[in-house]
Amino acid sequence: MDALLLVDIQNDFLPDGALAVKEGDQIIPVVNELQPYFELVVATQDFHPADHGSFAANHSGKKPGEYIILEGLEQILWPVHCVQGTAGAEFAKTLKMNQVATVVKKGLDKNIDSYSGFYDNGHKRSTGLTRYLKDKGVHRVFVTGLAADYCVKFTALDALKEGFKTVVVQDATRAVNLEEGDFEKAMDELREKGAKVMQSKEVVKMKS
Ligand code: VGL
Ligand code: ZN
Asked: Which is catalytic among the residues 8, 120, 149, 158?
């Protein structure tokens, strides 16, 4: 069975959000169109406590884009985003949620960030997503969402490591692009590690 993964399609990653992804809103109609072709749809939600260690504001004198060591791991600092209980953490208003079977929350531990929907960045704690998908008989995942160079990339890389065939839907994701070219770099790395990069219209054709 195939599953469609919707990674972090939340207000703070849309163009007016706290950690805005350029054109992030443009993926929503694409993702909504894809959903009916899948028997299983799972969403992830970046869901930080206000005192999260990945926020520059929680480290005096630090600005977004700077690096620190957080509990032994290199951590790039972000603007405050996706704080539990705020509108920024909510799913995009136009994202269809009626088909979403479960929501996997991540980034809850203030001492470690979690880009992947499967594990924290130290690969210490599982979110339970692998077990959930395997119990449902999923062998292949199609990854969409935000952002291509962070949470989508790390979710897809972990999916490969966990033994899933992995497809990234290129027009259903956009990048933060802290450096120019990060989108292409992410797609290249994903292909190199064994993921397939497809267009949504190819996915529709294949599932029709
Ligand atoms: C993300 C940076 C920090 C993402 C989440 O969803 O790509 N990026 N938290
Ligand atoms: Zn985050």
From this structure: 8
